[in-house]
Design a protein that fits this description.
Subcellular location: Membrane
Radius of gyration: 31 Å
InterPro entries: ARM-type_fold, ARMD3-like, ARMH3_C
Strand order of the largest sheet: 1-2-3
Protein name: ARMD3 protein
Main location: membrane
Organism: Galbula dea
Length: 689
């Protein structure tokens, strides 16, 4: 007997040239795409349709083939199909529900796709009809809510979330998606929270739920009252917030693991040997080899949680028992999750106990550590647009954290010490730090390490000015907390001072190139004021008196850089150009640094002359500094410990609109591949009772 092949909804015998036969569901679709009511000749038409396995490819292709005018002619049948899909969601037989959900996905995508080229009809009218839209969409949302909250099939819940993601992401700009008005009115917020609070549901659907919530929160967020924003901001249930944090941590951990695996694979290969042999000329290529696609969707979810909900801050410091860090005998066995959706979904082993490959000596981890490691990877290379956006969002999240009083309390807590192995960019002049030698320190040290790392590794032609400004602001906000609460942090402050001085040196060396694109004086002023903060208030938060002495030593040792900066800003502030005002601000800010240099340099020269020493050691310079503090006069500068708080709407709206657009496109692309196959779903419901 000849083998039967199936292609595009057609059945044909491979051994004959007879006209191919169409499968029954395709014939039924063809009836819908006529102007006649398909149930006229067959009263059981709709009942039978939802027993048939959906052919998504054919249905979407059929919609795509029609022009706007042709689509309008069959509007009544499209409305009828949409309404019968919603009715089928209430059926007892799961096969009907599955097929109805799949059909809704195809309808929504197909009609929206058509609207891109033809704007002559309204989407809502085309799908459901204006007169029935409110009731139908209410019924749809209630059915989806019931399915998500029910004890039933996990596959059905997965498909419900996929339909909702399909609904949200059919337009690139989600704020132009008018169907979402009904998702706002008929909220599924509680259903999403229920998924996140239940260990089983969270393992199966947490990723999709978190991405969906992040997108819904961004619907017209600056134009109207978004109920998802309001509700997310007041969630205080510990299990729900921890569940959300866990999902985010797992996704970021998976990224970190993939990167580490690729890095190790790369380092052990021939290319690495070649790189070591010839030096750094291949380093850029090497980085490209080990790049892993970033996950902006999950990062957006973390941002919204940190930014909107103060209770979520506590989740950042909580360890994760479900990641195999603190397992208990009663812990449920991890279940293999359904493939999630998003920018770059975690792989199927994301929930396994070995999912978080922690440093050997670290007993626990938490979301903040995972996030810092993630940030250290994506912030290495900001030339790629996605990484640039990810890097910026990482710094925005850290800005929100650095402003929060409670977050600062646990960041600086001496009783919460961790060994955080940040990824460091390969550079010629330094060796890779051995992971085992990392000390256990308060988490704020890892944040400062990350900022120092960024400062020293991004002084390049395509200068990321915006990221540098954010980086310096984060350091400043942390110092303000330390000064306010008199926290004496045992940190290698010299590394920060050295990085800041080198940054000033870079700005001066590349003055002409940088001034063509950026106001470098804003950044220079911020750096100088960080030094002013240390000079004015350092005695209240530096760990020891000798740390304060070392600050003066660094300023004196690197005085040529400050002298050159003063000469540059003085030159520009005395000219009547566009940089006069910003340059003059830097001139005024340098007053105390110049006073220190001008006070101690003659004393050091005199000491060297009296003792007949051509070059003083560090200890000798420090001795001069300590014995001459009394005669040093400094000016009190106001506002050094003040800062403008982060505001999304006024300064970051354009960035987030573009970011959400990018995420919407990526989620839609992933969704298109994941929903085309029904095999897993149909296996679960292979018989109808």
């Amino acid at each position: 007997m000849a083998q039967t092949e199936k292609k595009g909804g057609l059945l044909r015998k491979s051994s004959t040239s007879k006209k191919p036969l169409k499968e029954k569901v395709v014939l039924m679709y063809d009836e819908i795409f006529t102007t006649e009511d398909p149930s006229k000749c067959n009263p059981r038409f709709w009942e039978e349709l939802f027993l048939m396995k959906v052919n998504l490819e054919y249905l979407e292709g059929k919609l795509e083939a029609l022009d706007g005018e042709e689509l309008m002619k069959i509007k009544d049948n499209i409305n009828c199909l949409f309404q019968h899909c919603i009715q089928a969601l209430g059926e007892e037989h799961p096969i009907r529900v599955v097929n109805a959900l799949q059909t809704l996905c195809a309808l929504i995508r197909g009609v929206h796709q058509k609207n891109k080229s033809t704007s002559g009809f309204d989407i809502i009218n085309m799908l459901v009809g204006f007169d029935k839209a409110e009731l139908c969409m209410k019924n749809l949302m209630e059915s989806l809510d019931s399915l998500l909250c029910a004890e039933g099939s996990e596959s059905l819940k997965s498909l419900c979330l996929k339909l909702l993601l399909c609904l949200v992401t059919v337009t690139d700009n989600i704020s132009q998606n008018t169907i979402l008005e009904y998702v706002m009115i008929n909220s599924i917020f509680e259903a999403i929270l229920q998924i996140l609070s239940s260990p089983l549901s969270r393992r199966e659907h947490g990723y999709d739920a978190v991405v969906l919530l992040a997108l819904l929160v961004n619907y017209r967020k600056y134009e109207s009252v978004n109920p998802y924003i309001v509700k997310l901001s007041i969630v205080d249930d510990e299990a729900t917030l921890n569940g959300m944090g866990l999902v985010i941590a797992q996704a970021l951990s998976e990224y970190n693991r993939q990167y580490k695996d690729k890095e190790e694979e790369h380092q052990s290969g021939f290319f690495s040997a070649l790189t070591n042999m010839v030096g750094s000329m291949f380093i850029a290529d090497a980085d490209e080899k080990i790049s892993v696609q970033t996950n902006e969707a999950i990062l957006l979810a973390l941002y919204e949680a940190v930014h909107l909900n103060r209770n979520f801050i506590t989740v950042l410091a909580q360890s994760h028992p479900e990641m195999g860090l603190m397992t208990t005998p009663t812990s449920p066995i991890p279940v293999m999750p359904v493939t999630p959706l998003g920018t770059t979904p975690p792989s199927s082993d994301v929930i396994s106990s070995a999912e978080l490959p922690l440093d050997a000596d670290v007993q626990t981890s938490n979301l903040l550590i995972t996030f810092l490691k993630y940030s250290s990877i994506v912030m290495q290379d900001t030339k790629d647009e996605h990484r640039l956006h990810s890097g910026k969002l990482c710094l925005i999240i850290l800005t929100c954290i650095a402003e929060d009083q409670y977050a600062n309390a646990f960041l600086h807590d001496d009783n919460m010490n961790f060994r955080v192995n940040l990824h460091r960019m390969p550079m010629r002049h330094r060796k890779k730090a051995a992971d085992k030698n990392l000390p256990c320190r308060p988490l704020v040290c890892a944040v400062l390490d990350l900022m120092v790392e960024f400062i020293i590794t991004h002084m390049m032609k395509e200068f990321p000015m915006d990221l540098y400004v954010r980086c310096i602001q984060i350091v400043h906000k942390l110092l303000c907390y330390q000064k306010k609460c008199r926290v004496r942090l045992h940190y290698t402050w010299r590394e920060l001072w050295s990085a800041l001085i080198n940054l000033l040196k870079f700005l001066m060396s590349n003055e002409t190139v940088l001034l063509a694109k950026h106001n470098i004086f804003t950044l220079a002023l911020m750096v100088v004021n960080l030094f002013n903060m240390f000079i004015t208030y350092g005695d209240t938060f530096l760990p020891t008196p000798s740390s304060y002495d070392e600050l003066y030593y660094e300023i004196i040792r690197m005085h040529q850089n400050f002298d050159n900066l003063y000469s540059m800003v003085l030159r520009l502030s005395t000219n009547a150009g566009q940089w006069k005002e910003p340059a003059s601000k830097v001139t005024h800010a340098l007053v105390n640094i110049r006073a220190i240099i001008n006070h101690f340099n003659p004393k050091i020269e005199s000491y060297a002359a009296v003792n007949h020493i051509s070059q003083l050691s560090e200890d000798q310079v420090l001795e001069v500094v300590r014995s001459n503090y009394d005669t040093l006069t400094l000016k009190l500068q106001d506002g050094l410990d003040q800062y403008e708080r982060y505001s999304e709407q006024h300064k970051e709206a354009a960035f987030f609109k573009e970011l959400v657009r990018s995420i919407s496109i990526n989620v839609r692309k992933t969704l298109a591949f994941n929903t085309l196959s029904q095999e897993l779903l149909l296996k679960e419901f292979s018989t109808i009772s």
